Amino acid sequence: MAFTPEPTRPIRAPGDAPAKESSLTLERGLNLLQAVADAESEAPTISDLAAAIGVSRAAVYRLLGPLQSRGLVRREGSRVRLGLGVLWLAGRVLPQLRVASLPALRSLAEQVGATVHLTVADGGEAQAVAVVEPSWTSYHVSYRVGTRHPVQRGAAGRAVDLPPGGPRWVSSSGELQSGAFGVAAPVRGVPGLRASVGIVALVPLAPEEVGPLVTETAEAVAAALK
């Protein structure tokens, strides 16, 4: 009697299915959190959220559980709002930006002998979140972390919104402080971040020489943040 072998079935690793399910659940949870954050006026309802992310109301209730337990969202009856846990997460962003950017900023400060800073745009304002002063110069600009100014003023502010394909850096003279000169380049490629790396000095800077160095540092900062 002839023997006919059974068709070979593909071998699936034991963890494949749970891993895919966990990934899908995580993605849906993040989509839900984004949908709550995107609400422009009244807080969305469970039904609104179900329609927004393409799942059932029951699935929304399940996804809300972990988010609520971490304080990322809160329910008010059938409506859902962002929770205070989001503020805590937001408060951890700037320290991590500072730590990640410091090596590249320090290298540039020592190379050019001028104060170097990372500036982040917050709406219509620009804020210095990391500052490194050179160790070997006789004098340099003292620039404080937390310093704010309008984004349309100063090289650091104007650089954050430089369009791709446009100028690689911008320069300024006395826009924020009399006698101070600046060159800044945008930090590109980090989703949701409008930022720049800048140099500020008490002597005129040669943009054609300093600009490429600032741009390289901005690229290094972007790589460190990804």
UniProtKB/TrEMBL annotation:
Please indicate if the UniProt record lists Lipid biosynthesis as a keyword.
Answer: no
Keyword Transcription regulation in record: yes
The segment(s) forming the IclR-ED domain are 85-226
Where do the segments described as Disordered lie? 1-20
Specify the superkingdom. Bacteria
Q: Which PROSITE patterns match?
A: HTH_ICLR, ICLR_ED
Q: Where is the HTH iclR-type domain?
A: 23-86
This chain belongs to which protein, by name?
Helix-turn-helix domain-containing protein
- Per the UniProt record, the source organism is Saccharopolyspora taberi
